[in-house]
Amino acid sequence: MIKKKWLLVVSLIALQFACAFSPVPAKTGSTPTPILEYHSIADKKDDIYCVDPVTFEEQVKTILQLGYQPITASELLEMWKSKQNTVSKPILLTFDDGYKDNYTTAFPILKKYQIKATVFLVTSSIGKPNFLSWDEIKEMQDSGLIDFESHTDTHSNLLKLKADQVRNEFVESKQILEQHLNKPVRILAYPYGYHRAYMFPMLKKAGYEMALSTNPGFAGQRQGMFAVRRITTTSDPLVHLR
Questions:
Q1: Residue 51: CATH number of its domain
Q2: Is the dihedral of CA 152, 211, 227, 8 positive or negative?
Q3: 71 within a domain of the structure (yes/no)
Q4: Number of other residues whose CB lies within 10 A of the CB of residue 87
């Protein structure tokens, strides 16, 4: 637990140091921003995509101690569009797939510290065992802390699908989420992070304005709005920065 906590601290500090000596976009609202990529918050030591609850809470406390201000993906998008920084040191906590422990375990911790986060939902998984239900999603959304966005309809490897199938993954997920959430769904996280440039016009036509990859590093508009970087929270975040 201590090792994981300090790995996160070191990675955030290292990224801050790197950004200090790299060109920073001149426009306000486009300051490089760390986006942390979580999946499941559970005590499963044999699963690299699980962060145990004690470690997760320690990471949340460390993030706040370092002066970061958690915002949602929607708030980051608005900051970039308006070219105005509404917070001085933003960070995003994102959760892929929509596991039930995001509600049972992560959500109470997020509420305890009043931390905002974004969950990317696989629409065909909603309501299935081990995944969030619509009632749980509504409760989380109504708290004002959690933003829900798209992780496609079936979580398929997009690189193995035909173009019309890729398009359907984007469109169907967006339509289902907007019907249930009563809000625009403008952001997508690619399953496994896999994407190609030919998908960008599809996303734009479907009504998306931003998409998150798993390419490591701070997020910034210069990467392109459909290839935004994230920092994985697997065993050693630093492996994605070397």
A1: 3.20.20.370
A2: negative
A3: yes
A4: 15
CA-closest candidate to residue 98, choices 48, 52, 149: 149
Tally of structural domains, the chain: 1
> What is the C-alpha to C-alpha distance for residues 15 and 51, in angstroms, rounded to an integer?
21
Integer Cα distance of 186 and 183 in angstroms: 9
Task: List Cβ neighbours of 199 (8 Å cut-off, separation of 6 or more).
Answer: 158, 166, 170, 211, 226
Distance CA 136, CA 181 (A): 12
Using an 8 Å Cβ cutoff, are 227 and 214 in contact?
A: no
Domain enclosing residue 186, as ranges: 2-24+31-236
Task: List per-residue pLDDT tens for the chain, 242 residues long.
Answer: 555 555 565 455 445 444 443 333 334 456 789 999 999 999 988 888 999 999 999 999 999 999 999 999 999 999 999 988 889 899 999 999 999 999 999 999 999 999 999 999 999 999 999 999 999 999 999 999 999 999 999 999 999 999 999 999 999 999 999 999 999 999 999 999 999 999 999 999 999 999 999 999 999 998 899 999 999 987 544 333 23
